[in-house]
Amino acid sequence: MSAALSDALLHRLTWDDLDRSHLRRLIEMARDEDLAGLGLLRPPVRPGDHSTGSIPSAPRLAEAHLTARQDLTVCGLPLLSLILSAYGPGCSVQLRTRDGAAARSGDRLATVSGDPRTLLSAERVALNFIQRLSGIATLTRRYVTALGEGRTRLLDTRKTTPGYRMLEKYAVAAGGGWNHRLGLFDRVMLKDNHLALLGSGADLAGAVAQARRHAPQLPVEVEVDRLDQIPPVLAAGADVILLDNFNASQLREALALINGRALTEASGGITLDTLPHLAGLGLDFISTGALVHQSTWVDIGLDWSA
Which of 282, 216, 219 is nearest to 8 (CA)? Predict the structure, then answer.
């Protein structure tokens, strides 16, 4: 199976790939949750930041530093300027590092300056975004390190927070992982529940043929969970075979059966402990939703200058 097809299946989202108008909508929703009770049937009578609103006009501009309070992989810093602009004009951002970089506890990630009332109002929303995305990038970096160098590439999945998929996939890329299946639109994926509708392996060739007629420009991937399903999948001409919840021994047998006639992806039960045992098997891809759904926020603070 060609390296060109393998490369065509994968993405590494960059900041320039992200739609700014969508990001602004997410930020405005987060702002309005905080200031106006967005999501409540009965919003507050008096919206606004009444804590910061009680502070009189400041005689000078303030400066604060976004500071790592643990070792982490950075992600989300370009959002800062978009977030501050959603709260009003006159604030500026100076980035001290870049997304994807490693930071040590105590490192300054960015400096924000402007009206202290604006900075205070925006502080929590800014930290929420960046702590969350940096948490995904940090966990992804641990998985990439556990997998080690070699031909097998670590992929994310469609198990993402609704509305935040592209940001979360961007965070995976910042951590050194790869994005695939940005949505249902970019690949034909026949999974177990699709195959259950077919009723038998004899129908698989027809399903793959129909998929190619329906979307001839898209690769076709088929999920299997038993070794005996592999021959009919190969005969059907699938581009990728997803080996679901196979142990290392079963994966070796599966790879011998496939013998390079399709790209291979292992998924299910992938952990930091199991990855080193899978690294040398010769798989093309290993995918896991854990990069997002098992990640935890990292500790980042906003420290005010004296």
Answer: 219
Pair 204, 233: CB distance under 8 Å = yes
- Among 139, 126, 171, 130, which Cα is nearest to 30's? 126
The one-letter amino acid code at 75 reads C
Q: Do 37 and 138 fall within a single domain?
A: yes
220 plus 178 within the same structural domain: yes
| 161 and 139 part of one domain | no
- The reply to whether 68 falls in a domain is yes
Q: Which domain holds residue 184?
A: 3-8+148-293
Q: 199-234 as b/e, with b when 16 or more CB fall inside 10 Å?
A: eebeebeebbeebbeeeeeebbbbbbeeeebbebbb
Q: Is there a single domain that holds both residue 253 and residue 157?
A: yes
| Same-domain pairing of 88 and 225 | no
Instruction: Show Cβ contacts of residue 73 under 8 Å, excluding neighbours closer than 6 positions.
Output: 100, 101, 102, 103, 134, 137, 138, 140, 141, 174, 175
Does the pLDDT value for residue 57 go beyond 70?
Answer: no
Which residue is listed with tokens 């602009």?
85
Same domain, 164 and 121: no
**How far is it, in rounded angstroms, from Cα 15 to Cα 171?**
10
With 80 as the cut, is the pLDDT of residue 91 above it? yes
Residues 177 and 277 both lie in one domain: yes
Percent of the chain's residues with pLDDT above 90: 76
184 in any annotated domain: yes
- Determine the number of helices (DSSP H) and then strands (DSSP E) in the chain: 11, 12
Number of domains in the chain: 2
Per-residue pLDDT tens over the stretch 94-112? 999 999 999 999 999 999 9
Q: What amino acid positions are annotated as catalytic residues?
A: 124, 159, 191, 223, 244
Confirm if 119 and 112 have CB atoms less than 8 A apart: yes
Separation CA 123–CA 132 (nearest Å)? 14
